[in-house]
Amino acid sequence: xxEKAFSxxxxxxxxxxxACGSGNFLTETYLSLRRLENEAxxxxxxxxxxxxxxxSLSTVKVSIGQFYGIEINDFAVTVAKTALWIAExxxxxxxxxxxxxxxDFLPLKSYANIIERNAxxxxxxxxxxxxxxxxxxxxxxxxxxxxMSDAQKADVFYIFDGVKSNGNLDYVSCWYxxxxxxxxxxxxxxxxxxxxxxxxxxQVAILWKTLFKxxxxxxxxxxxxxxxxxxxxxxxxxxxxxxxxxxxxxAPKHLYDKDGxxxxxxxxxxxxxxxxxxxxxxxxxxxxxxPIGMGNQxxxxxxxxxxxxxxxxxxxxxxxxxxxxKKWLGSQxxxxxxxxxxxxxxxxxxxxxxGLPECMKRVENVxxxxxxxxxxxxxxxxxxxxxxxxxxxxxxxxxxIPKVSSERRKYVPIGFLTPDTLCSDLVFIIPNATLYxxxxxxxxxxxxxxxxxxxxxxxxxxxxxxxxxxxxxWCEPTPEQKxxxxxxxxxxxDARAKYPDSSFADMYGDNMYLYGDLVSAHNxxxxxxxxxxxxxxxxxxxxxxxxxxxxxxxxxxx
Length: 558
Fold this sequence. Notes:
By secondary structure, this protein is of the alpha/beta class. 38% of the residues lie in helices and 16% in strands. It is built from 18 helices and 20 strands. A nine-stranded mixed β-sheet has the order 3-2-1-4-5-7-6-8-9, with helices on both faces. β6 and β7 form a beta hairpin. The longest helix is centred in the first third of the chain and has 26 residues. The two termini are 57 Å apart.
């Protein structure tokens, strides 16, 4: 490569990491460019390198002066500057070996442009003018919306002033917005490493809807991957890498995941190959299916909830209370295969209740607990101490979906229950649901949708009625297709029943392959549902989601 052409490519490129920490991104970028420069120098010298007159060779073009950083921690700033100086010295020595000539390094002449400031409160153009800047990169802080300090929350409100529901955004979102603001009217490109939460759930509608309105488009992205900590106490986060800009980009867009690189036409905020579709919160289903709601929320300070042994002890003291106990399930109980029990006195007449002194003690405890609350709704509820704040007790079979489930599962365990069991507010329930609904919801089609649009609790799936269920596009099966799905759905229930000593955590965990007939039942159900949607049987999840988003788009246009 001619030296002149090479210098045009990289010597004028300017980089900033606005959350640079100890300077890893800046240092590695500098080292990579200098290695590339050294390769260019080798090429320019050719095979006659040992005999060349290197006195005519121009000085090194790539400089640490092209690299800028912003960091709030003073010690990290010092480390970042030092790291760049060390990298510069290291690469100059490498160049000396190539050209067989000494290059001056000391005293330090290059300045490492790292400043100590809060990147969200400083104008980045005060650090480097945007008409000079080429690339923004970095790994901003991973702090969830519910875990921020007061100062960090104030930063979010400042950056997203006027944006609805901005309090639900993670801290890293601020760097996306600041970068988008700076890039306006330029050819600057940005790439950031982030927690995958900004591409899931309600955050997509808040963050990416805002950025798309500013003309931002995603140029490339790496879908969710696990980034393990090197600390002695192992920890890991689930990350994405998003490259974006506002400048016209006719180059192919690249979408990366564990299976490699795929060239696509467009990448949306969910990091799916589809139009820039936003799944907005919806209070009712987009299709004609049974409504979903959460389970019961007692607000009773534990007075009405019992373990099995606690219930038996209570009944020994007050046998007449036995008929008022019902099985009770939340996410943990349902997935791990055990029950708690609820003392439901809402249907007990006052006369009968007065004849149950132990029950009356519980009722009075609940009344006093509610009276001590500062919330007006709870205070009002003290007038009805035998009732729950939220009551959802179907009188027929219903579907149960845990609110939270492990991200390691291919299928979120979904139940098909009878009305003798009550559920807590840690699950969603769908009254009047049928085998057909169960078959669709437990299929890979619905699971793919859930994985794409649901939020996360840490790394676990956090199912949402307003985002996941109410926006899910249902197919329109023929009578034959519907009957087939009902049959495969029943086969899943039958396969589960063969393992009464195994919990859903067992059956749907890492060793699911041991439950061969359950796996076969799910595979058959997946195939039946895919056929009803008109999808190819070997269609990967990313393509399933893309097709579902097209269906969603058509439904919202009606």
